Each structure stands twice: as structure tokens, then as C-alpha cells.
Amino acid sequence: GIQVEQSPPDLILQEGANSTLRCNFSDSVNNLQWFHQNPWGQLINLFYIPSGTKQNGRLSATTVATERYSLLYISSSQTTDSGVYFCAVVEETSGSRLTFGEGTQLTVNP
Amino acid sequence: EPEVTQTPSHQVTQMGQEVILRCVPISNHLYFYWYRQILGQKVEFLVSFYNNEISEKSEIFDDQFSVERPDGSNFTLKIRSTKLEDSAMYFCASSEAPGGSSYEQYFGPGTRLTVT
């Protein structure tokens, strides 16, 4: 099955800093989603981005499908951005299941 | 904005008991999913469901698990005889069409199952 690798595994920032999270995947995909898991365990949809670039406020994401990676940018980070960020993909030749990466644990300190 | 809802938010059960986790998908969605996340680990796919039948399942989804759409709005996951290792957060998700057709999956807030 498809492999999804996220980096870095852990990231500690001061409030106001910018960051880039990376997601590499091993095969072609036709669905890629970024999620934020908050301290209560809820998965919040951030982006549906199988290709191209999208922006939503301080967050933006870019997927380069031909090179099999996606990036999530967080600008001017806030303490409420803390949590785990997951990348998940649907392999092009394999049904509709989302395969998740291990996540990036982000801590934003005041 | 429409959202996926799940009940209960937290369930505690004894080993060997049956549990039913409930989900109400977004109303115009056709595809439904269950995922689980053991504490501290990544989210794992369990099963997908379309047109009143399972369309795909993982190796985790063995005979102790079953899914059902008992009416026009609810989607349930039943675990027949719970084990300690079933303790996890269970997420329901729905989409207009399968992810393979490039549709976003929307997740519910999860049910935390604790088996004692």
C-alpha cells in the first residue's frame, strides 16, 4: 500500500513564527487532505488539495502531485495552532480509503 | 454549515460487551466511513459503505465488527465482543462520492471508546 511520511515529527515554535510541514507519499494519489487534531481529539479539515495551491487565512497548502509531496504553511503562528497535523491521501489505484501519515506535533509557545 | 455528528462522545464498556457507535453523516452524502485512532498513533481506515453495503474494508475490520445504515440518516458501527485493544477514538466520515473520485471526506468529532 501507499506510504505517507510527514516531517518533522515534532516542531516547537514561538508565537508569531512561521513554519512549513511536509508530506511525502510513495504513489500517485487523487485525494490529499490536511487535518488539524485539536487537544480534544477532533479532526478539523484544513484543506482538500490533491494538486495546486490553496490559502485560508494564515494557512496555505501546496501539492505537487507529479513529485509526490505536499506542504502546509502556517504563518504568524498562535498558541491555538498547537496540536497534531495529519496529511492523508487516497491512492489512485486503491478504492477510497484515506491513508494517514504519522503526523507532526506542533507546539506554539506564548 | 453541515457537519457529521457522532454519539456518544465517550463510552466506557467492559471487556466482552457489545457496543454500538452512532453517526449521522452529512445529509446529501452517499459514502460513509469508519476510522479509528489508538491513543498516540495515527488514524487507521476500518471500512467504507455505499448503497447499503460494504465497499471496502481493512484487515482490522474482522468478524467482530459490523456496520449498518438502519434508517435514512444514521450509520452505525457495532463491536460484538469488545477487547481491551479496541480502546480507541472512532471517527465517522462521509463524502459525496468516494475519495477515488476526488471528493473530500468530512469527519465527525469522534467517539472515545474505553474498554476496561
Protein described:
The complex is a heterodimer of chains A (110) and B (116). With 110 residues, chain A is mainly beta. Chain A has strands at 4-7, 10-14, 19-25, 29-37, 43-48, 52-56, 59-64, 69-74, 83-91, 99-100, 104-109. In chain A, the strands form two sheets. In chain A, strands 2, 4, 5, 9, 10 and 11 form a six-stranded mixed beta sheet that branches. In chain A, strands 1-3-8-7-6 form a five-stranded antiparallel beta sheet, with no helix packed on it. Chain A is globular. The model of chain A has no long low-confidence stretch (mean pLDDT 95). Chain B has strands at residues 5-7, 10-13, 19-24, 31-37, 44-50, 53-57, 65-68, 75-79, 88-95, 106-107, 111-115. The termini of chain B are far apart. The mean pLDDT of chain B is 93. Classes of the chains: A mainly beta (110), B mainly beta (116). Chain A binds chain B through residues 30-31, 33, 35, 40-43, 45, 48, 50, 86, 88, 90, 92, 94-103, and chain B through 31, 33, 35, 37, 42-45, 48, 55-56, 58, 89, 91, 93, 95, 98-107, 109-110, 112.
